[in-house]
Specification:
Blueprint: E1 11-15, E2 26-30, E3 43-46, E4 52-54, E5 64-73, E6 78-82, E7 90-99, E8 104-109, E9 123-124, E10 126-127, E11 141-142, E12 156-161, E13 181-186
Antiparallel strand pairs: 1-8, 2-7, 3-4, 3-5, 5-6, 5-7, 8-13, 9-12, 10-11, 12-13
Length: 197
């Protein structure tokens, strides 16, 4: 059955074999003056100010994958925890929770033609998406045309196809059609770069 074009960002799906048995989330701050929504599953980058921001499609080094936030909602007058950070209505800096463990694995949808088995071990870039404000879920995807690249400046490493992990017939497992799902690991993050921000 053909895959559906319905990107969902980078969804945590497990750990690499041999990785430590537990993983925590790293907390970082988003400036109260930022003014751009960030959704669960969006890659984020570090800014020279110490804050984070949603990553654009040409990012080389990322801080991690946005997993949720805690912030003062000025509309209801109390702190809330949600999948996404809205562009407005945030009172003060927001605390963001990032998945940036080097052993973490994420499942993500290809943005076009099917990513082949031969792309495993190669690198890939992501395509930015808008996000769904009702669910708080990202709409980022992986750029099919970069899948399997040898450029080590790309932020993700392809470690498998979702069809190797999920039961047959599951969404995203038809590797003969566009928009298949792949499993990736973080390739270039703040935690493993030698140059810093």
């Amino acid at each position: 059955m053909p895959n559906t074009d319905s990107p969902f960002g980078f969804r945590y799906c497990g750990r690499q074999e041999g990785g430590s048995p537990t993983e925590g989330l790293t907390s970082r701050l988003v400036s109260s003056t930022y003014g751009t929504a960030i959704f669960q599953g969006d890659p984020v980058i570090s800014l020279t100010s110490g804050y984070i921001a949603v990553a654009t499609s040409n990012a080389v080094t990322i801080a991690g994958i946005f997993n949720g936030t805690e912030y003062l909602n000025s509309n209801v007058g109390r702190k809330v925890w949600f999948n996404s950070l809205p562009a407005t209505g945030v009172g003060g800096d927001a605390k963001a929770y990032l998945s940036n463990d080097p052993d973490a694995l994420f499942v993500v949808q290809a943005n076009g033609s099917a990513i082949p088995f031969s792309a495993i071990g190669g690198n890939a870039q992501f395509a930015a998406g808008t996000g769904d404000s009702s669910t708080g879920i990202s709409e980022y995807s992986l750029v099919s045309t970069t899948a399997g690249s040898t450029l080590n400046t790309m932020p993700f490493r392809i470690v498998g196809l979702w069809s190797q992990y999920a039961p047959p017939g599951s969404p995203g497992t038809d590797d003969t059609y566009s928009f298949n799902w792949v499993v990736v690991a973080l390739n270039n993050t703040d935690r493993n770069t030698t140059t810093g921000v």
